[in-house]
Specification:
mainly alpha; two-stranded antiparallel sheet; 2 strands
Length: 79
């Protein structure tokens, strides 16, 4: 792959601090939860939500960058 391409795609999002609406979209489904005797209550189902792939990648990059800065500046509790 071309890692610089992904970086070029995410640069405007990071620079302007906005997250495109298309990247915020998520698809969800509620399959039956196995082993439940009755499907009358909401706890009988498990919700599975699939975010967009680029949104997940951007979130991972930003989390790693922010956690490094937070550790270096002492913003995180060591426990």
């Amino acid at each position: 792959m071309a890692p610089h391409l992904i970086q070029d795609l995410f640069a405007p999002l990071v620079t302007y601090g906005s997250h495109a609406l298309t990247l915020k979209k998520a698809d969800g489904t509620a399959p039956d939860n196995p082993g439940k005797p009755s499907y009358d209550s909401p706890s009988s189902f498990r919700l599975i939500v699939l975010q967009q792939t680029f949104s997940k990648i951007l979130e991972r990059i930003m989390n790693s960058r922010l956690s490094c800065v937070a550790r270096a500046t002492g913003l995180l509790n060591p426990r």
